[in-house]
Design a protein that fits this description.
This protein is mostly helical. It contains 5 helices and no strands. It has helices at about 5-25, 30-50, 65-70, 80-95, 105-130. Helix 2 packs parallel to helix 3 (about 65-70) and helix 2 crosses helix 4. The radius of gyration is 14 Å and the shape is globular. The two termini are about 25 Å apart.
Length: about 130
Amino acid sequence: MANEQAAKEWLTLAHHDLNGAKLMFEASHYTDTISYVLHQSIEKSLKSILAFENKSIKKTHNLIELHEIVSLDTFNLSEDEILTLSVITTYYSKQKYPNPNYSLPSQKDIEIALKLASDILNNICILLGVNLRL
C-alpha cells in the first residue's frame, strides 16, 4: 500500500530546499552553499519514492546510487541528467569540508542544477500524485 503521507513529508522538505536554493541564487549567494542545498533537494525528492513505496530508505548521499535504486521500477532520467546528478554528488562531497580539490561551482552549473532539481521534484510529485499546497 502506498504511503502518500511519508512521500509528501520528504517532498515538502525537498521543496523547501529548492526554494531556499532559488532565493540564494537570486541573491548571488555562494555557489558552493547553493549546490549543497540543491543536492539535499534532489536527495529528498528521490528518497520520497522509496517512502511512498514503503521501502527501506538507504542512508546514502550518492544521487547516482539513489537514482539507480528508484529507477528500477518507477523513475528514470536521461543520460545528460544522470551526468548532472554525478556533478551535483561531487559538489556535495567536495564542498562539505575543505580539501585540496575545492572549487566553486559556476553560475551556469548552478542554473543547470536548479532546473534539474525543479524538474525532478515536479515529476516525482506528478508520478506519486502528491500535491504540495504550500
